[in-house]
Amino acid sequence: MKCGAKLILFQGDSITDCGRNREDITSTGVGYAHMVKGQLGCEYPGEYEFINKGISGNRIIDVYARIKMDIINLKPDYMSLLIGVNDVWHELGGKHNGVAAEKFEKIYDMLIGEIIEALPDIKIMIMEPFVLEAEKTTATETEPERWNYFRSEVSLRAAAAKRIAEKYNLPFVTLQDKLDEACKQAPASYWLRDGVHPTPMGHWIIKNEWMKAFREM
Asked: pLDDT tens for residues 160-170?
């Protein structure tokens, strides 16, 4: 890392991971994290370093399990966290390995509390998990009952994430409403290819909201 540069850490699941190269610490994948890196790196050359530690398939308990190695030990100045959809998704499709809403909030609270205790000067933004009913929504197979369950349960995780943000006085980045609004201009699959994973256009929306929150931190 360049001496004096501020470190920005992106944390989350596949939406953050987005194909990053595990062997290259500078790799930020091809999603919103990469877009943020490009924009901030261009606007403020040399002032920031970027690390993406998102891991595809992660739930809140998976992020908590790697709190020391992938968060505290890195000593980031800034961290964003987008997590929650897998905590629901992993309960579907016969996996039955999701994280209940109450436990999700409990672990989320522990995670943020311990990070702040270890890194009292860190600035954290909490990002809202989201889902859309695309033409072929992953894990629901467009079955109405499963889709309703998926959307309502993701909303519960989003509400929990917002409460955690409020408890610790952290920025909460709303994304579901932005994506719902975007669907008035183009179909859901234009923004989230399978109802979960963003297209480049969906990532651009996330990037824009990330940037708005960052500029206010």
From this structure: 999 999 999 99
User: Model confidence over 101-112: pLDDT tens digits?
Assistant: 999 999 999 999
Domain-by-domain residue ranges, the chain?
6-216
Q: Mapped to the 3 state alphabet, what secondary structure does 4-40 carry?
A: CCEEEEEEECHHHHCCCCCCCCCCCCCCHHHHHHHHH
pTM of the model: 0.95
State the DSSP code for 198: B
For the domain 6-216, what is the CATH superfamily, name and number? SGNH hydrolase (3.40.50.1110)
Measured CA to CA, the distance from residue 90 to residue 98 in angstroms comes to 5
Beta strands in 13-127 (DSSP E): 48-52, 78-82, 123-127
Can you list the positions of beta strands (E) in 54-157?
A: 78-82, 123-127
